[in-house]
Amino acid sequence: MADHLVVDETLDDTNRDLKTIHQEFSLAKDRADQTNRIWGQDDLTWAMGEFVNNWYVHRDKINERLGKLSERVDQACQTWTDAEKQLADSIQVDEVSNA
Predict the structure, then answer these.
(1) Which of 21, 39, 78, 84 has its CA 20 to 30 A from that of 68?
(2) Residue 4 per-residue DSSP state
(3) What are the boundaries of each domain within the chain?
(4) pLDDT tens across the length of the chain (99 residues)
(5) HEC profile of 26-71
(6) CA pair distance 60, 26, nearest whole angstrom
(7) How many other CB atoms are found less than 10 A from the CB of residue 81?
C-alpha cells in the first residue's frame, strides 16, 4: 500500500485525457471530411459520411458535456493544489513554533 496519495497526478492525467477527447470530438467532422477519399469504394465513403453527418447532434452534446467536465476537473486541480499548499504551509508553521 502506498504511503501517500497521488491525487494531483491523477487529476492532471484525467484532465489531459478529457482535453484530448474533447479536441478529437471537435475535430471529428473535419477529419471525416479529410479522410473521405481514402475509403476507395463509393458505398463505404457514403456510409462513413452518413454516420458523421447523422451523429453530429449526439457528438455536439457529448462534446459540450466533456468541455464542462474538463472545466470542473481544472477547478478541482487548482483547488487540490491550493489545499495541498495550505496544508504544507500550516505544517511548516507548526514545526517552527514547536522548535
Answers:
(1) 84
(2) S
(3) 7-98
(4) 445 566 778 888 988 999 999 888 888 777 777 777 777 778 888 887 787 778 777 888 888 999 999 999 999 989 988 998 898 888 876 666 666
(5) HHHHHHHHHHCCCCCCHHHHHHHHHHHHHCHHHHHHHHHHHHHHHH
(6) 8
(7) 14
